[in-house]
Amino acid sequence: SKASVLSIQTKCVLVAGGAGKVGAHIVQSFLSRGARVIVPSRSRERLDLLEQRTAGVASGELIPVWADLETAAGQQTLLNAIRAQDLALCGVVASLGSWWQGQPLL
Fold first, then answer.
1. What is the SS3 assignment for 27-83?
2. Least buried of 12, 55, 85, 93, by fewest C-beta within 10 Å?
3. What is the pLDDT of residue 89?
4. Pick from 34, 30, 27: nearest CA to 65
5. Which one is predicted more confidently, 26 or 96?
6. Would you say 36 and 56 are in contact if contact means Cβ atoms under 8 Å apart?
7. What's the angle, vertex CA 89, arms to CA 70 and CA 26, rounded to 5?
8. Residues 6+ apart with CB under 8 A from 98
9. Over the stretch 92-106, which tens digit does the pLDDT of each residue have?
């Protein structure tokens, strides 16, 4: 059924950029549906703010990972956090960058 296809309860999702403005809403949506959500960020402050914003979303589990993914050590930290979950990672969302980044289109 359609409901079972869209069900993400007990699933584990990684949201890259989940501590940002748009990403935080994506994280909240997954959490409200019961998912475990791994959010890596190199900004401890953004992770703390995300934890505060999602504190009222009780059905899922936020797993903040403080790591700079541009470094091998940060990548290993994220990999260790993923492996520490008792469920396989079932999806990745990339909410990275900003609309003003890159070269002008015209």
1. HHHHHHCCCEEEEEECCHHHHHHHHHHCCCCCCCEEEEEECCCCCHHHHHHHHHHHH
2. 55
3. 83
4. 27
5. 26
6. no
7. 75
8. none
9. 999 987 666 666 656
Q: Looking at the DSSP assignment, which residues form a beta bridge with residue 40?
A: 65
What does the alpha-carbon distance between residue 103 and residue 93 come to, in Å, rounded to a whole number? 24
Shortest CA distance to 8 belongs to which of 93, 80, 65? 93
Q: Using CA atoms, how far apart are residues 1 and 37, in angstroms rounded to an integer?
A: 24
Distances (CA, A) of 8 to 21, 52, 70, 73, 94: 22, 23, 29, 30, 17
**Residues 55, 79: Cα–Cα separation, whole Å:** 25
Residue 67 and residue 77 in contact, taking contact as beta carbons nearer than 8 Å: yes
pLDDT digits (tens, 9 = 90+) for 41-82: 999 999 999 999 999 876 899 999 999 999 999 999 999 988
